[in-house]
Design goal:
about 475 residues, 22 strands, about 15% strand, binds 1-deoxymannojirimycin
Length: about 475
């Protein structure tokens, strides 16, 4: 059934349905493709929940304004800030901006916008991590431009895109991990599928908006270079050398360093409507479901296997892997998405807060930190809007309450170094404002953003389809 639906979509057929998502009757076109599943109409707002999330956001933002204004990240416990590089790139303001607009926090958003447009500059002689800067800043700038239509956002996006482009100048076309924003010098050939493949949405959209194909072409070549080097059984490994294309670590999984590679294969197809993306996604997810998925007595998980043999090498799962129910649901694989969401929620309730990593066979915690991560809330949100089933909103509300209870401090929210003792660290990542609180808010008030009109980048910046001819 799934294959028929997807084939129909690829061929541009007009009607499809899914038992959980409402039927789609939109025509498929290359530039604004039809989606496999659609949001359930008329979902009600949970006003009390929405108010709580907004209050949490204001609390986090006020901590940033007071102690970290103009810098990358708040350290709420020591009441100071952290910058990623020698000059701040306004990670938190850029990540927070779209969430403020969705929540209707106009005053905060206006002052945030003034800060960014007045101070954000990429003209710095410093090495930056291409992936991190892309998902936070290029994604955030493009989403802001598509929302506000203010050309200053686009000018910054173009400038950043141009400065990141030298990263792709490797013999294989796969980008280096880091690039110097001023000189174009590159560093670190040992890259991974996530950092290589999580550029397509932003670079593709930059090309669609500017009419300059160079960005999309470079990111697509990089994606294809990873896909072409998949093993005979269709899996990718954890680390690859972008100079010679050789795999340096054959562990295959859906966690950090691979996670958003899969996410972007699907989303590139949905945003750009290209049949080749669709082929890469379907063949990749088939291999994932065949080899990496693990049906156990405690439910469905996705563990670790050798990319060449498919032999299971570890039964590790954790906070980062929790994005997968969202991606499976968006692709129309609702059964698997719902089973995996049950496992994700069991991980939260078992330990009170999810661990960064644990062994789903033995229950042993492998990494006890909690970094204010959003993935479980992201998946609860997708499942709620695509099924209309309140149990997913209940899960999300419970997760949100657990986060607030354990991580709220006087001047914001902070990561935990150990979920067993709830020992607090000292850092509020920018994605807490971009993703964690945005997905919590959208669970509470799903009408605040039309799910069917956007594709969220991996930092939860909502991107919109643009016709090829548009300038
Ligand atoms: C975010 O920066 C993105 O969601 C990325 O894909 C994974 N890590 C963090 C959130 O956990």
């Amino acid at each position: 059934m799934k294959r028929l639906v997807l084939l129909g979509l690829a061929l541009g057929l007009t009607a499809c349905s899914h038992p959980s998502g409402r039927p789609s009757s939109h025509a498929s076109t290359p530039s604004v493709p039809t989606r496999p599943v659609h949001a359930v109409a008329g979902l009600k707002t949970d006003t009390a929940f929405a108010r709580e999330v907004k209050d949490a956001f204001r609390h986090a933002w006020h901590g940033y304004v007071r102690y970290a204004w103009g810098h990358d990240r708040l350290k709420p416990v020591s009441e100071t800030y952290h910058d990623w590089y020698s000059s701040p790139l306004l990670m938190t303001p850029m990540d927070a901006y779209g969430t403020m607009r969705i929540m209707g926090l106009t005053q905060e958003a206006d002052s945030d916008k003034a800060l960014i447009l007045g101070h954000l500059s990429f003209d710095h002689d410093m090495m930056v991590q291409v992936f991190e800067v892309n998902i936070r800043l290029l994604g955030g700038l493009l989403a802001a431009y598509q929302r506000d239509h203010d050309p200053r956002w686009l000018a910054l996006a173009k400038d950043l895109g141009n400065r990141l482009m030298p990263a792709f100048k490797s013999p294989t076309g796969m980008p280096y991990v880091r690039v110097n924003l001023a000189t174009g010098a590159t560093a670190d050939a040992d890259n991974n599928p996530a950092e290589i493949g999580t550029l397509r949405l932003e670079f593709g959209l930059l090309s669609r908006i500017t009419g300059d194909p160079r960005y999309a072409d470079a990111a697509r070549r990089a994606d294809e270079a990873v896909f072409q080097r998949r093993s005979k059984i269709g899996l990718v490994g954890t680390i690859i050398d972008v100079d010679n294309g050789k795999w340096l670590n054959p562990a295959s999984h859906v966690g950090g360093r691979i996670d958003s590679y899969y996410e972007y294969l699907l989303k590139s197809w949905l945003l750009f409507g290209d049949a080749q993306d669709h082929r890469m996604w379907t063949s990749s997810v088939d291999s994932l479901n065949k080899y990496v998925a693990d049906s156990t007595s405690t439910g469905l998980w996705y563990g670790v296997v050798d990319m060449n043999t498919g032999k299971r090498t570890a039964t590790t799962f954790g906070a980062l892997q929790a994005y997968l129910p969202a991606v499976l649901a968006l692709s129309g694989e609702m059964g698997r998405a719902e089973s995996l969401m049950n496992s994700v929620y069991s991980m939260w309730t078992r330990y009170g807060i999810e661990p960064e990593a644990f062994d789903y066979e033995t229950g042993k915690i492998l990494d006890p930190g909690y970094d204010l991560r959003p993935e479980a809330l992201e998946s609860a949100y997708y499942l709620f809007v695509l099924t209309g089933n309140e149990r997913y909103r209940d899960m999300g509300r419970d997760i949100f309450h657990r986060i607030v209870k354990a991580t709220r401090v006087a001047n914001g929210f902070t990561r935990l170094t150990d979920i067993r003792t709830q020992k607090k660290g000292d850092g509020m990542p920018s994605f807490f404002l971009a993703e964690t609180l945005k997905y919590a808010y959208l669970l509470a008030d799903p009408g605040a953003l039309d799910f069917d009109k956007v594709i969220f980048n991996t930092e939860a910046h909502p991107l919109r389809p643009v016709a090829t001819s548009s300038r």
